[in-house]
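User: What would this chain look like folded?
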Amino acid sequence: MSVAELDFPELPSLPPPDQPPPPMSLEHRFRQRTGLFALTLVVALVAALCVDQILRSGYFTIERVRIVTALQRVDQGLVERSTWRNINGNYLTADLGGIEQALENLPGVYQAVIRRVWPQTLAVSVTETGAMAQFMPLGASETVPVHEFINLAPSNQLSTVPVLRAHRNDRERLIDVFKQILPALHAVELEPLALSVSPAGRWKLELQIGVDTPANQFLLLAGRGPVKEKVTRFASSYAMALRSRGDMIAQVDMRYANGFAVRWRDDSAVNQVQLAGLTESGD
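Assistant: Here's the prediction, encoded as structure tokens.
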């Protein structure tokens, strides 16, 4: 049999090799981009309308404020009223941080934490302060607030409300120094009644011996310089040598580089100024 007589199956023709699509016309690309832009714009407008409806004050309103802490010193009604007064917006948009800050300005509130409870409630947790101090600005030209209280940490327990006096510009420094000297005073059972700093930078501290003896008070003159170190030095000496005669102290002068001077009450024999390791005046 010859090759010509062989019956070979017919093979399908191969497709032509891939060809790149014809270039898109400029008009077609313009229409495509215009359509995509229009679709994006419509979606954005619809989303904006939905967000506006959600955030509108008439929706998701706050219907309840719940105090979740058992309060001992702070009036619960005062906390609730202050919370309501400082709500701006609805359940989703209310500034919780602003409400917390307003609550922490209330006397007796050391820290406030607010959380949302779905669907319409704000839960308020309050940490009460252990003690308070009252700031009174110096200077007749300054406007004295009716009540400007500083809430102290719960670890600070005081039976009185100490008065802090300074010019407005020294307010923060005065409060910081007051907080720094509290541990040293607490260790020797002395309570601060008042702390002041003059425009010239001279510090004075009024102290009380014990809780139940308000008549046993004396003045500590710290002068200029590091107040915390001077108070700590006095507290150490008081614990070692002066505690038994604390009710006889009228004034302590710490305005020295080393040591201090004590002026006693009553008897002329002990009403003289006694010096303890003094070297030079530091005032």
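The radius of gyration is 38 Å. If you want, I can go into more detail on any region.
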